[in-house]
Write a structure and sequence with these properties.
Oligomer: single chain
Strand order of the largest sheet: 1-4
Low-confidence stretches: none
Helix content: 55-70%
Shape: globular
């Protein structure tokens, strides 16, 4: 009875289009689109003098951020979610086209890239982090849409009116949790950070935007994890938490610390 009331999952080919022998997947397009639009948004902040970073360093920074996202995301997935499998099959670690990326791993990769860039360019780390954080929800939005298109990372069984039966999720209808994450981690979080940047002069207090991003993401991810299906090979951890919630908890604490410290500092010129 529940299954009959579920919405039909759209038949979306994971391959967006093909160029001869080259297959372009939605997942790849999501990463490219997120990086390009995020880069353009950061350049807009520079042109409007919202951020003290000028366009030259921004263009250089994009390259290192992209590497941090890709390598950090993949390494994080292998360490956080399937360490045993990849220890037994190390050759598959670099096979990113088979799927398997971790946001938290990508975040750590970006942090490493920003630290390296800050030391190399002599610019304040928190200024770089705030500027990048303002654009990150753009990539999260497109990444979650790609998860939906791939029919992966779906939610738990439910009887809500908008439940869907996913191709690999069995016969029971489930929460389209990927869309919840696209809205909360992507659209809503971007709107909050945009208000901070454009209306509240958040970039004048280094650490504010980064802290708000960390807190906002941790809350959004923690809430959606309540209806998202836990990874089958991991299940629920201590206290009934999921791996996503466990990894997001330190983000929440660090974000609160950054915001508190930023509020104690005098504002700086943009």
């Amino acid at each position: 009875m529940i299954a009959l009331s579920a919405l039909a999952f759209p038949a979306i080919d994971p391959i967006a289009f093909e160029l001869g022998p080259l297959a372009i997947r939605w997942y790849s397009l999501a990463y490219i689109t997120g990086l390009v639009l995020g880069w353009q948004y950061v350049r807009l902040l520079s042109r409007r003098a919202i951020t003290p970073l000028d366009r030259g360093p921004i263009d250089d920074l994009l390259f290192w951020v992209a590497l941090g996202v890709i390598f950090g995301g993949r390494i994080g997935y292998t360490l956080f979610y399937k360490p045993g499998y990849y220890l037994a099959n190390p050759a598959e670690i670099l096979m990113v086209w088979r799927g398997g990326m971790s946001f938290h791993g990508g975040l750590l990769g970006v942090v490493v890239a920003m630290i390296w860039f800050a030391r190399r360019s002599g610019r304040p780390l928190l200024t770089i982090a705030d500027t990048i954080a303002a654009a990150v929800p753009i990539g999260l939005f497109f990444g979650r849409l790609a998860n939906f298109a791939n029919g992966e990372l779906y939610g738990r069984v439910t009887d809500v009116a908008w439940a869907m039966i996913f191709p690999t999720g069995g016969i029971m209808p489930r929460h389209p949790s990927q869309l919840y994450e696209a809205v909360l981690e992507g659209a809503v979080l971007f709107a909050v950070l945009a208000w901070l940047v454009w209306r509240a002069a958040g970039l004048r207090r280094p650490g504010t935007v980064t802290g708000a991003f960390l807190v906002g993401y941790a809350i959004a991810r923690g809430l959606v994890e309540l209806v998202r299906e836990p990874d089958a090979h991991i299940g629920l951890l201590g206290l009934g938490w999921t791996m996503g919630q466990m990894l997001s908890a330190p983000m929440l604490l660090l974000g609160l610390v950054l915001i508190a410290r930023a509020r104690r500092r005098p504002p700086v010129d943009a």
